[in-house]
Design a protein that fits this description.
- By secondary structure, this protein is an all-beta fold.
- Helices cover about 0% and strands about 45% of the residues.
- The chain has two helices and 59 strands.
- Strands 8, 9, 10, 11, 12 and 16 form a six-stranded mixed sheet that branches. It has a four-stranded antiparallel sheet with strand order 3-32-31-30, with no helix packed on it. A four-stranded antiparallel sheet has the order 4-5-6-7, with no helix packed on it.
- A hairpin with a 2-residue loop joins strand 38 and strand 39.
- It is elongated.
Length: about 625
């Protein structure tokens, strides 16, 4: 087995290793780029983005940066209003936005906002959902509005570059079907259950709408109470939060059974409720953010988490600190507040403990003995990986040259590095030898040869004969990035060259290498997205078929090695950034099978990408 120094991380602000258990709280405010502190709704869409409805602008958050969408009277495709009430993603990936001025639809395919119109008039909406037949249901104060937009109509609007989608809605009035002893019945919630039932919360109870007959019927036993919240977990359990005469009641509808509870705290303010997929109940109560296990909640048991308002400056907000609750796909809780932005709660605590902080660590190596070395502190080695103790670095004379990895072990554990010359340190005698050799980086290949590359081509050194050979390109290639590591050998023994202009495939031959050049062609959508490549890695599931390519500004590319076709992924698909410094494939999944994930380092943090589902998870 070949002995090598392995690169662990390339671009990192601080190094973290050990998991913590204490819940951590992060606050996102206008100081972080949020357009306004009053939050009405939070939603995570399928591409990984977090959308935030505020009193002044729609915000899209990619894990590090906010993009704000505001009205623009000179742009017909801009959002129609600044105060956003409700957000919903439909089965086609369209984002529906409820506003006082009407209902807008954001189309991620074109990046524009379409405006829903009926007889040239807008349709305001408070709540939005979708039934399994593709119909959209909008709710305002007293009525439901059913809308259907066919795919051909949507495509026609795109092609005609129209800013409006004209619909023929059906209006269903609650007053005509609900007999209650009050004059004013209004909708408070709208929810489609996992059993495809359309639930309507009102100020006088919970009702079910039969979407075929459009008949509204009450759901017992909470008729007559104002419905404030409807939450459902992955298993289909429904938690209904209601109140009557300043007392809060909850009803759990689970597997045909109904469990009820009265709040032990009288005259309390409940401004948020969530039943998460793990079966936990979250409440925003009197400016506290509290979590219970479901069983403990209905038994008036002890809470697991209680975040007091003084930790977040919410103790002077008259009980209305929180406005909405949402959990993202990674299990983080997002809580919107009434003027203080967003609170993120990671109940598992910090994912990393920071070591050697306040220092940028560009290159970290692991030696044969398992010790870690960082180029920032070249005179030290850290034997036990916790960075709490160090020893003198007598192993690695040099860790990097101009920011690049230029150090490898050979089969016999002799150390080679490339500086002004190629140097070798004998494992046994510790004697250092020098050889004339050139290049930008160093790689020890499957044939026990040392490979380097320059703008002219590949340079190869044979450690046995101590002779070097040059294998030039068809013409010199300019350096595209000084931050690249230039060389990667895939599982088949093919050398991939990057950091120069484009991407170069070097196929070993008896007499040298056969080069295949990949460059960006603006007229070819299947070509490389940009000519500055930073990193490459074999696909973890199909290494002989696909190569993943990280670029500087062109996002992530997947190369089909057989056809030469590139598929592109960018921030529009949920990546945190379009600059990919490094790619690392996971070795195995939890069950021991091949992992479907690759990890990427970017300007905006680490990102894990599922190569099967093509979904991203940004490390918070």
């Amino acid at each position: 087995m070949k002995q090598r120094a392995s690169v662990l991380l390339f671009i990192f602000l601080s190094l973290g290793l050990f998991a913590q258990n204490e819940p951590t709280i992060t606050q996102l405010t206008v100081n972080d780029g949020l357009s306004q502190g009053m939050i009405f709704d939070i939603l995570q869409t399928r591409d990984g983005f977090i959308w935030i409805a505020t009193k002044d602008g729609l915000n899209r958050y990619d894990g590090s940066r906010f993009e704000v969408f505001s009205p623009n009277p000179y742009d017909p495709y801009a959002i129609v209003g600044s105060e956003i009430w409700d957000l919903f993603e439909d089965s086609r990936g369209l984002l529906w936005i409820g506003l006082p001025e009407g209902t807008d639809v954001y189309d991620p395919q074109t990046g524009v906002f379409f405006h829903i119109k009926y007889k040239n008039k807008s349709i305001p909406s408070f709540f939005i959902t979708e039934t399994s037949d593709g119909a959209m249901w909008l709710a305002n104060n007293h009525e439901l509005i059913k809308i259907k937009i066919q795919n051909r109509q949507l495509q026609q609007v795109r092609e005609q570059k129209s800013a409006y989608i004209e619909v023929a809605p059906q209006f269903i009035s609650l007053k005509n079907q609900i007999e209650v002893p009050v004059d004013d019945v209004f909708i408070t919630r709208l929810h489609l259950t996992k059993e495809k039932k359309l639930l309507i919360g009102t100020n006088y109870g919970l009702f079910n709408l039969d979407t075929k007959t459009e008949k509204i019927t009450p759901i017992l036993p909470i008729r007559g109470y104002k419905v404030n919240f409807i939450s459902e977990n992955r298993g289909g359990d429904l938690l209904i939060g209601t109140d009557k005469d300043f007392t809060h009641y909850w009803s759990l509808l689970s597997k045909g059974k109904v469990i009820q509870k009265v709040s032990p705290v009288q005259n309390s303010f409940i401004t948020g409720q969530l039943l998460d997929d793990m079966g936990n109940v979250w409440l925003a109560q009197n400016n506290h953010l509290i979590k219970w296990k479901l069983s403990e909640f209905f038994a008036d048991g002890k809470s697991e988490i209680d975040i007091s308002p003084d930790r977040l400056n919410l103790d002077y907000n008259n009980g209305f600190g929180y406005t909405c609750l949402m959990t993202d796909r990674s299990g983080l809780l997002w809580a919107g507040t009434a003027g203080f932005g967003i609170v993120k709660v990671n109940e598992k605590g910090q994912k990393f403990k920071t070591s050697l902080s306040r220092t940028g660590h560009r290159l970290i190596l692991e030696g044969i003995d398992g010790a870690l070395y960082t180029a920032v502190m070249p005179n030290k080695k850290f034997p036990n990986k916790n960075f709490e103790a160090s020893a003198v670095n007598a192993d690695f004379p040099i860790l990097e040259v101009n920011g690049r990895k230029a150090l490898v072990y050979d089969r016999d554990a002799n150390l080679w590095w490339l500086a002004d010359k190629l140097k070798r340190k004998d494992k046994n005698t510790k004697i250092t030898s020098s050889f004339a050799f050139q290049g930008l980086a160093l790689l020890y290949d499957h044939h026990d040869k040392l490979i380097s590359v320059s703008e002219k081509g590949i340079h190869r050194f044979d450690p046995i004969t101590q002779k070097s050979h040059d294998f030039p390109f068809d013409h010199p290639r300019k350096i595209g990035s000084e931050d690249s590591n230039y060389l990667y050998e895939d599982q088949t023994g093919v050398i991939w060259i990057f950091g120069l202009e484009g991407l170069i495939k070097a196929i070993p031959q008896k007499t040298g290498y056969h080069y295949v050049y990949y460059i960006n062609s603006p007229k070819d959508q299947n070509s490389l997205s940009i000519n500055t490549v930073m990193s490459v890695a074999d696909d973890p599931l199909e290494p002989s078929h696909y190569l993943w390519v990280g670029t500087k500004g062109g996002g992530l590319n997947r190369l089909d090695k057989k056809t030469g076709i590139f598929r592109k992924f960018s921030q529009e698909h949920g990546l945190p950034d379009n600059v990919i410094y490094s790619i690392l494939a996971e070795d195995k999944a939890q069950n021991g099978a091949a992992s479907s994930y690759i990890w990427m380092s970017t300007n905006k943090g680490l990102c894990r990408f599922d190569v099967q589902k093509h979904t991203s998870k940004i490390l918070p």
